[in-house]
Design brief:
- By secondary structure, the chain is an alpha+beta fold.
- The chain has a single domain, classed as Nuclear Transport Factor 2, Chain: A, CATH 3.10.450.50.
- The protein has four helices and six strands.
- Strands 2-1-6-5-4-3 form a six-stranded mixed β-sheet, covered by helices on one side.
Amino acid sequence: MLRSLAIVLLLSAVLGVGVRAQGSLAEAAERVRQAWLRHNVEAIVGQGPSIVLQIPGADPSAPVDRAQALELLRRHLRAGVERRLTVSAVREVEPERGYAELERRYVVAGTSDERRETVFLGFRKTSDEWVLTELRSAP
């Protein structure tokens, strides 16, 4: 009985820490990383009305609406098979604004040549969560 109570208290403490950490910039970057690995473009883009995309096939001069961003990102990810994706940096540059970098290794479907790409993520904090506002890739 005492052991069960200790386990419940330990789980409560661990889960409580997780809930408090959900609003962090590092957690936001990790959520994008996980979504990228699944090629879940809806989760990558999130619920923001627009996003700046600088990827092959997108005009980086202006933000695109959510629907267009989903399609452009879907096309960008379609041919790739992920080998490795890591969060290499997370920085809050000012209150309510931050950046993260993902280091991506992938192969184009049907080939064995591994390619590398750095993905830069720009976030803005709205109330209690970080929202993706920019996604830029560089070879």
